[in-house]
Amino acid sequence: MKLPDVSDADGGLVVNETFGPTFQGEGPSTGRYAHFIRLFGCHLSCAWCDSPHTHDTRYDLDAEQRVLSIEDILSWLAADPADLLVITGGEPLLQAHLLGRLLCAIRERALATEIEIETSGTIAPTNMITSAVKRFNVSPKLAHSGLRRHQRIRPTVLRDFAEGGKAIWKFVVQELADLAEIQELADTYGLHPVWIMPEGTDSTTVLARMRMLADPVLARRWRLSTRLHTLLWENDRGR
């Protein structure tokens, strides 16, 4: 599969969608009033990806992307400044240069109180991006993603995030056996705090897996994340 190149878009960021207000559905900010910018493009292709329309050629990718200038995005935010702004994807750090400029402009104009970036942990952020964000929600992919280990686990990048002090580690889990793989990664690369999140794009699956995971996650003294948007709106886009 040939992935679209978003690293040198002319004139702006390649965006899949902007939406909000809604709730942040995952991780430590679950339940917070939030706006989202979903950037287009990803260099990974997880078997269970919940946003394949950002990169998968089975979709009409021309219809799934648009180039927005920094001023376009600032105008969108100015209409309703964000308590929490979440930059997601795809893989947002594929567009690091323009993303850094955008985040600095958002901070200068006070258009978001806090900014989070959701990332796979395979691309290191620039200093400009790191200085502008409150938190990186880093989600290293496990073996059930269907990716080879060298594709999904980049030791230098993981250590950089861990040492930077702004990362939480959110692992997508399908089965209890996945917890042993997470433990190995956490011990090897010093990843903490660890958040466990059930994989699933419907409320029945998410609830069943949360119940399966609850006691084992407690026993390891890790944290458990729901997928609030899925519980509320199933797999609706833009929620």
Automatic annotation (TrEMBL):
Positions contributing to substrate binding: F23, Q24, G25, R38, T88
Stretches assigned to coiled coil: none
Sequence ranges assigned to domain Radical SAM core in this UniProt record: 29-235
Matching PROSITE patterns: RADICAL_SAM
Organism the protein comes from: Amycolatopsis sulphurea
Binding site for Mg(2+): S51
A molecular function GO annotation: carbon-nitrogen lyase activity
Keywords: 4Fe-4S, Iron, Iron-sulfur, Lyase, Magnesium, Metal-binding, Queuosine biosynthesis, S-adenosyl-L-methionine
Key word Glycosyltransferase present: no
Family, as annotated: Belongs to the radical SAM superfamily. 7-carboxy-7-deazaguanine synthase family.
Highest taxon of the lineage: Bacteria
Requisite cofactors: S-adenosyl-L-methionine; [4Fe-4S] cluster; Mg(2+)
Enzyme class: lyase
Transmembrane parts of this sequence: none
Swiss-Prot/TrEMBL catalytic activity: 6-carboxy-5,6,7,8-tetrahydropterin + H(+) = 7-carboxy-7-carbaguanine + NH4(+)
Binding positions (S-adenosyl-L-methionine): W48, C49, D50, G90, S139, P140, K141
InterPro entries: 7-CO-7-deazaguanine_synth-like, Aldolase_TIM, rSAM, rSAM_sf
Summary of the function given for this chain in its UniProt record: Catalyzes the complex heterocyclic radical-mediated conversion of 6-carboxy-5,6,7,8-tetrahydropterin (CPH4) to 7-carboxy-7-deazaguanine (CDG), a step common to the biosynthetic pathways of all 7-deazapurine-containing compounds.
SUPFAM superfamilies in alphabetical order: Radical SAM enzymes
Native organism taxonomy: Bacteria, Bacillati, Actinomycetota, Actinomycetes, Pseudonocardiales
Residues binding [4Fe-4S] cluster, per UniProt: C42, C46, C49
Pathway the protein takes part in: Purine metabolism; 7-cyano-7-deazaguanine biosynthesis
The protein, known as: 7-carboxy-7-deazaguanine synthase
EC number: 4.3.99.3
GO biological process: tRNA queuosine(34) biosynthetic process
Cofactor binding summary note: Binds 1 S-adenosyl-L-methionine per subunit.
